[in-house]
Amino acid sequence: MRSAEPGDLQALTALEQRCFASDRLSRRSFRHHLRGRHSALLVAEQGGQLLGYGLLLLLRGTRLARVYSLAVEPQARGQAIGEQLLKQLEEHALSRGRVFMRLEVAVNNAAAIGLYERCGYRRLGLYSDYYQDHQDALRLQKLLRAPREQLPVQEAPWYGQTTHFSCGPAALMMAMAALDASIEPNQTLELELWRESTTIFMTSGLGGTHPFGLALAAARRGLAAAVYLNSEQPLFIDGVRSDDKKQVMMLVHQTFLQQCQQAVLPIHYREFDDSALQQWLQRGSAVLMLISTYRMDGKKAPHWVLVTGLDQHCIYLHDPDVESDWQQPIDCQHLPIARADFDKMSQFGAARLRCAVVLANSAASC
């Protein structure tokens, strides 16, 4: 077992062709992962012959790793090569601070499913029509270190934003659907919610969504809503250079504020911490949080996520943004973020804005 090298490229591509009839990794993909900072490509070799490989993705800014692909030479199967590769991938993930491993496997691949379940992977769900040949995929996960106390979990469907500016509506729809099973997230509703809650402008391009606007949109649809933030200043204008844009955003802020006051929608100007998140989740509320994506993608952009749970080590998020070509929706669901990292991630901008929108079926839970 060793790390793959550029000289393995031809053998890796040939092995991929022999092992898979569809959803194959290309030569270009292998080359990308050979030098990737957030991936690990390991190979099994005997007598100069490549017998298998395992590809691991390390989700940036998280405690999550993903087995992207695992392949063993057909003539070499039955020698525990796949199991050894998997163990090496797990050890590498642990050495890089990851505590969860996730993967997907075709429902008709009994041998692979057996391997993963023997190695401690448990079923999380099912993806329909996942592969190019229209096969369904099982979603599996393993906790790589000793079990810890499990605190509240919000069961919520995951929805991926369909535009680069609609993370707020996507997170809001997930929260609404968690509280009301009759609500089905879709693009029509996503854009409708964006129009109701947009800041119009942002640092560049179209505006994101304002917490007051998101809370008002939820209240119009029958949910109790409250906003918690640590600043009374107009939001998001620090990074905007144009005075005209700032003026528009300040007017939008003031209008939303007046609408909240007219609707008697609570706005709490105070600091809050993880203990508040725990209390909200324990009451059955759904919690949207504003974060900075810098630790995840290197961009200092405001981004809305849904908090789905927490334990003594991590905060778990549904992130509506599938950020890269190598990510899948599985990578964005119940995403584990170390508490210390989340504390920094949830403070946006130079003013360290911290903001949450709390939704519930009754005002008492907000």
TrEMBL record:
Keyword entries, A-Z: Acyltransferase, Transferase
Domain N-acetyltransferase, chain residue ranges per copy: 1-145
Gene3D superfamilies per the UniProt record, alphabetical: 3.40.630.30, Cysteine proteinases
Domain of life: Bacteria
GO terms of molecular function: N-acetyltransferase activity
InterPro entries: AcTrfase_RimI/Ard1, Acyl_CoA_acyltransferase, Bact_Acetyltransf, DUF3335, GNAT_dom
Pfam families linked to this entry: Acetyltransf_1, DUF3335
PANTHER family to which the protein is assigned, alphabetical: AMINOALKYLPHOSPHONATE N-ACETYLTRANSFERASE-RELATED, AMINOALKYLPHOSPHONATE N-ACETYLTRANSFERASE-RELATED-RELATED
Official protein name in the record: Ribosomal-protein-alanine N-acetyltransferase
